[in-house]
Amino acid sequence: MKPPKISMKQARIHGTNLLFLLPAFALFAFVVILPFLQGIPYSFTNWKSVISTNYDYVGFSNYITLIRNRYFQQAFLHTFQFTAIYVTGANVLGLGLALLLNRSKWYTNIARTVVFIPFTVALTSGAIVWSYVYTDIISPLFNIVSPLGVSSQVIPAMAVIAIWRDMGYCMMIYIAALQSIPDDYYDAAKVDGANWWQRVKGITFPLIVPAIISNVTLLVAWGLKCFDYPMAVARNMEAAQTAAMYVYDNIFGFNKAGLGQAAAIIITVVLVILTYAITAVCNRLEVEE
């Protein structure tokens, strides 16, 4: 079967769109892609610091060291724990709020704004404010120790901060997806006698799968790169050490830039694999309108 021919008008439109995307892509390539590719060779060396020009090739020694290193294993476990709580909480609350605030009324518009405002707050600023809430409000009010000071509670406590900040973003994505669903589908379901939950399960969920994929994959990426929260509120706690902090400490603190770069490569590979797996699973749930 021959592919459909593209008219000159369509070619001009696509070409114009690509030209508009080119500056953003060039900036992304210069800031993200190029440094990442340049850093791969350094992960196979004993490079000491970012200002050092002397290093020797050590092969896969850094990767083997990381796989066997207990602190790196713990940092990765903490990162996965944080990401799992964060992604689940932000998406569940975001979707729930979207279902409640889907209809455009003056009071729902105000509520959407209030819920979305935390997303505009800087990560570090939000973490510091929540550190005050945990320490000076929740702790004396309930006569408990701040969860940021308890090893078994610090990861969930940081995840709550991240959920508070990003659930508004998830809500807006889900609202956009909900408003793209034709009302005719719901009207037909009502005629057939479907209740609210049956309409949500049979119509809403399948048709917002693209939004679910977008939110989940993006938040997984943010979660695996978690650095600001532990740096701001739990810098000296081993139980709050994340993979991104491990990379930072080795590159800038312990003068083991080659080892830190290898850790960054491992995080990136895990992120790519998880993103592909999540997208593949969610795509099976998607339906054609």
UniProtKB/TrEMBL annotation:
Parts of the chain that traverse the membrane: 20-40, 80-101, 113-132, 144-164, 203-224, 262-282
- Organism listed in the record: [Clostridium] citroniae WAL-19142
Q: Which branch of life, at top level?
A: Bacteria
Which InterPro entries does its entry note? ABC_transporter_permease, MetI-like, MetI-like_sf
* Limits of the ABC transmembrane type-1 domain: 76-278
Stored CDD domains: TM_PBP2
Q: Which UniProt keywords apply?
A: Cell membrane, Membrane, Transmembrane, Transmembrane helix, Transport
The UniProt entry lists membrane topology as: Multi-pass membrane protein
Q: Which family does the similarity line name?
A: Belongs to the binding-protein-dependent transport system permease family.
UniProt GO cellular component terms: plasma membrane
- Look up the record and give one Gene Ontology term from the biological process aspect: transmembrane transport
Q: Does the keyword Nucleotide-binding apply?
A: no
Record's protein name? ABC transmembrane type-1 domain-containing protein
**Pfam families for this protein:** BPD_transp_1 (PF00528)
Q: Tell me the Gene3D superfamilies matching this sequence.
A: MetI-like
Q: Where in the cell is it found?
A: Cell membrane
